[in-house]
């Protein structure tokens, strides 16, 4: 077990890679009442095309399988896992993202037992034809719920505009039609390929004794048998830098129209510091211009083009990245035109040392605030870990950024070929 | 674990609550202004949070405020309004990174207090009026907010349920106010009202994080406390409404999924002795994935992705929320009602009850690990005018017996069933 002390933020992290390939992180925080445990596989909705374990041919599974699998994991042959956690005073949940599937619990009591439940249920798949059929009704309602959410529709349409082929353009839950075709064999194929311990991470943080916990996890894992560590062969299509579609309009019965401007971020398999640098610059520059009080925010605000639903987000992963800026607007055409005009002007900007200092302070403060949350630390740590970044070294990294870094980033951040507009109107 | 979470100091018409806790990497100061819900003032109270964030005497526009916040290591300011029972609460919160994690920064806390004081007590104004340009612009923001309420179907359905259920009660008042009142509101009238908020609202200030209590107390009394002692605000007594017949409302919109919301009257609020039993009842009924609603509506009958119940702790209401296919209305409604009947008949084991208690206690303890959650929990006591602390509530939950839960189930009355269905989609009517 490796012990890493981060004195500036008063955290100590323990790491061990078990014999079966599972990576375990323990971040004890004895002052908390709660313990949060997350068991995450490096497998999400974008992993649709791959060579199944022990096979040689590439296959493509139906849209929504990773998410369907996440739902079905909670059902064991003889019981429901929610009830097990419930009996142990824990609240359990799971989520599927573009790149990950994660199972988690939070508890203030019976931590070891809950950890065992987490490890055991995720490592004991049980799918039957009947239970797969029954789940389709539930997931169909989940999809219909999203179908009624205008924000989600604009979000997915923006991604469809940005990407030609990359499966990030596919809705994580799939469609009502695609999930109908999912079989229990699809679930087993994906499970066997992507749920090997070597493709997974367990991160525990909260109120526990670290040596006992690591022993407990080791014992649990060494009692189980797994196949040899596989080499997972995933296949992603070659994605051009340019957007698939420059503009589109959705029609939904909304009271106020919406508009989102999307930027397709260049992402060329960055790793470690190079990844972190791009990740930080991308989000800090967006913050600088578009957060409340930022000059672009002020312009849009003064021209009555935004309201308090205005938001921006940015996501960078190993093989895709995007930034989205949008919200309710009375005039989607003018919002798009103005936002694009502002973005084009970024290239001419030259950040002063004072501005860079302010951006850095803000970013550091936000990160410290987020670190109040066990959930944030565990999830963000895993996210960064897969791209070779250590979350707890991000603060000194931010401190090392210079005005030159920002000024060179904005030189080729904005490009007309990498921008798209998605509007939503009533009719 | 200590039993005193907070120290309360009453000074100059303000209650200062010190909530020291070493586990947080930030210090947050939260000011809560409380006033009875009223149709006459709600629109002004809905607009104030927007206006207050747009400028102060020293920082005359949003950009200047933001620059000050950024310099304080990305301190976060939030101002919002909420409804708790028959009260409206305006919350002004400033959260700042603890200076101990940042080398060479010793004045962040003092500057943060100054900034918060400036935002609360010195908004930018001219001749006893807010700046007309700010008020005009923020009225548009609020108007758009009122309009777009309808686009979030779950919260729209909840609002409609309360409209119907609480027709003659102040709880029905819309949190975002009313467009007619917004149109007649002026920079002068809004400013005059804010002066009265500062003088007459009950003000509670919470500080949480890792700080020196004596020093913080000194600073806050000096900087933030008001000169005036507010009049005692008498809580508005609520008419106890007994349900004689369940009201059923079906409306249609252009939606894929129908929202089925049920409103029950529990006749129990936070201050009541039965509140702990109500909490356990809610946990068995629909508070968790192991509850009856989730297990039956979702897992057994595959009718919904979500089916849950939530308490309104200060008004004595319980809401059931679910999203279903429009054609499944009758079936879903029947299954929901059957779950309540099952509890009435004692159809749950002592183990089920004990599991539920553990889940609730876990949830309360977890909430206390979050600075915002902790303050919301503590503020329940202020709203309820009760000295029942979160730890006492936990003790009471542990002691709830099966008979008490059954009696709560009998006490719950289904007041209104609200269905937001699809146009032309079957409601089997």
Strand share of the residues of chain A? 15-25%
DSSP strand count of chain B: 11
Radius of gyration of chain A equals 23 Å
Q: Termini separation of chain B (Å)?
A: 56 Å
Largest sheet of chain B: 6 strands, mixed
- In helices, the fraction of residues of chain A equals 40-55%
Sheet with the most strands: spatial strand order of chain B: 1-2-6-3-5-4
Number of helices of chain A: 15
Shape of chain A: globular
CATH topology category name of the largest domain in chain B: Cytochrome Bc1 Complex, Chain A, domain 1
Find the structural class of chain A using helix and strand composition.
Answer: alpha+beta
SS content category of chain B:
alpha+beta
What's the total number of strands of chain A? 15
Q: What's the level 1 CATH class of the largest domain in chain B?
A: Alpha Beta
Cα radius of gyration of chain B in angstroms = 23 Å
What is the domain total for the residues of chain A?
A: 2
Number of domains of chain B: 2
CATH homology superfamily of the largest domain in chain B:
Metalloenzyme, LuxS/M16 peptidase-like
Following the backbone from N to C, one meets helices and strands of chain B in this order, namely EEEHHEEHHHHHEHEEHHEEHHHHHE
Pfam families (chain B): Peptidase_M16_C
InterPro entries (chain B): Metalloenz_LuxS/M16 (IPR011249), MPP/UQCRC_Complex (IPR050361), Peptidase_M16_C (IPR007863)
Protein name (chain B): Pitrilysin family protein
Organism (chain B): Lentibacillus halophilus
């Amino acid at each position: 077990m490796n012990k890493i002390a981060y004195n500036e933020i008063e955290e100590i992290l323990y790491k061990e890679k078990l014999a079966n390939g599972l990576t375990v992180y323990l971040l004890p925080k004895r002052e908390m009442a709660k313990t949060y445990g997350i068991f995450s596989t490096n497998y999400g909705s974008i992993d649709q095309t791959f060579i199944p374990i022990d096979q040689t041919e590439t296959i493509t599974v139906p849209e929504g399988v990773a998410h369907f699998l996440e739902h079905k994991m909670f059902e064991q042959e003889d019981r429901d896992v929610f009830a097990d956690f419930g009996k142990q005073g824990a609240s359990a949940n799971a989520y599927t993202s573009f790149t990950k599937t994660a199972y988690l619990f939070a508890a203030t009591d019976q931590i070891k037992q809950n950890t065992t439940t987490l490890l055991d249920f995720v490592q004991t798949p049980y799918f039957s034809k009947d239970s797969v059929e029954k789940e389709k009704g539930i997931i169909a309602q989940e999809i219909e719920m999203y179908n009624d959410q205008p924000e989600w529709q604009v979000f997915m349409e923006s991604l469809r505009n940005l990407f030609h082929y990359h499966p990030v353009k596919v809705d994580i839950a799939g469609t009502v039609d695609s999930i109908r075709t999912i079989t229990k064999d699809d679930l087993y194929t994906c499970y066997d390929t992507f749920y090997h311990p070597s493709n997974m991470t367990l991160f525990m943080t909260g109120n526990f004794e670290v040596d006992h916990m690591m022993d407990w996890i080791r014992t649990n894992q060494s009692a189980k048998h797994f196949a040899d560590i596989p080499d997972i062969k995933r296949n992603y299509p070659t994605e051009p830098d340019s957007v698939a579609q420059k503009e589109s309009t959705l029609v939904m019965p909304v009271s106020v129209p919406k508009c989102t401007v999307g930027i397709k971020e260049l992402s060329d398999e960055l790793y470690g510091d190079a990844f972190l640098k791009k990740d930080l610059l991308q989000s800090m520059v967006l913050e600088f211009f578009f957060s409340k009080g930022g000059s672009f925010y002020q312009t849009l605000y003064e021209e009555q083009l935004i309201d308090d639903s205005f938001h921006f987000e940015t996501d960078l992963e190993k093989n895709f990245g995007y930034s989205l800026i949008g919200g309710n607007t009375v005039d989607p055409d003018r919002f798009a035109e103005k936002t694009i005009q502002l973005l084009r002007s970024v290239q001419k900007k030259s950040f002063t040392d004072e501005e860079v200092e302010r951006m850095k302070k803000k970013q550091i403060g936000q990160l410290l605030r987020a670190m109040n949350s066990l959930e944030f630390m565990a999830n963000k740590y895993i996210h960064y870990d897969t791209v070779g970044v250590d979350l707890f070294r991000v603060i000194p990294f931010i401190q090392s950024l210079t005005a030159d870094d920002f000024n060179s980033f904005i030189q080729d951040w904005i490009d007309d070929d990498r921008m798209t507009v998605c509007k939503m109107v009533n009719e | 674990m200590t039993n005193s979470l907070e120290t309360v100091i009453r000074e100059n018409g303000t209650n200062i609550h010190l909530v020291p806790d070493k586990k947080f990497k930030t210090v947050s100061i939260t000011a809560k202004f409380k006033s009875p819900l009223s149709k006459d003032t709600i629109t002004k109270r809905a607009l104030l949070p927007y206006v207050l964030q747009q400028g102060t005497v020293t920082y005359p526009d949003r950009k200047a405020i933001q620059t000050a916040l950024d310099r304080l290591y990305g301190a976060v300011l939030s101002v919002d309004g909420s409804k708790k029972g028959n009260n409206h609460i305006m919350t002004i919160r400033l959260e700042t990174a603890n200076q101990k994690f940042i080398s060479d920064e010793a004045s962040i806390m003092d500057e943060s207090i100054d900034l918060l004081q400036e935002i609360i007590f010195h908004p930018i104004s001219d001749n006893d009026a807010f700046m007309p340009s700010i008020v005009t612009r923020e009225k548009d923001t609020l108007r758009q907010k009122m309009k777009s309420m309808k686009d979030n179907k779950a919260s729209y359905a909840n609002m409609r349920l309360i409209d119907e259920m609480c027709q003659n009660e102040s709880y029905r008042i819309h949190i975002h106010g009313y467009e007619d009142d917004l149109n007649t509101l002026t920079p002068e009238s809004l400013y005059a009202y804010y002066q009265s908020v500062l003088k007459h609202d009950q003000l509670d200030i919470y500080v949480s994080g890792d700080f020196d209590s004596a020093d913080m107390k000194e600073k806050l009394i000096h900087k933030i406390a008001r000169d005036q002692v507010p009049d005692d605000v008498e809580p508005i007594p609520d008419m106890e409404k007994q349900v004689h017949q369940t009201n059923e409302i079906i409306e249609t919109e252009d939606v894929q999924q129908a929202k089925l919301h049920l409103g029950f009257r529990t006749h129990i609020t936070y201050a009541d002795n039965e509140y702990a039993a109500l909490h356990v009842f809610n946990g068995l009924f629909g508070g968790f994935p192991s509850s009856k609603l989730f297990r039956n509506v979702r897992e057994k009958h595959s009718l919904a992705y979500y089916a849950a119940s939530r308490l309104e702790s200060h008004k004595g209401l319980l809401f059931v929320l679910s999203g279903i296919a429009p054609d499944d209305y009758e079936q879903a409604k029947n299954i929901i009602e059957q779950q309540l009947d099952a509890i009435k008949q004692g159809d749950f084991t002592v183990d089920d009850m004990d599991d539920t208690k553990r889940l609730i206690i876990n949830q309360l303890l977890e909430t206390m690990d979050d600075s915002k959650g902790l303050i919301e929990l503590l503020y329940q006591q202020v709203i309820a005018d009760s000295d029942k602390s979160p730890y006492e509530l936990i003790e009471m939950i542990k002691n709830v017996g099966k008979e008490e839960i059954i009696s709560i189930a009998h006490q719950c009355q289904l007041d209104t069933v609200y269905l937001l269905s699809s146009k032309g989609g079957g409601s089997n009517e």
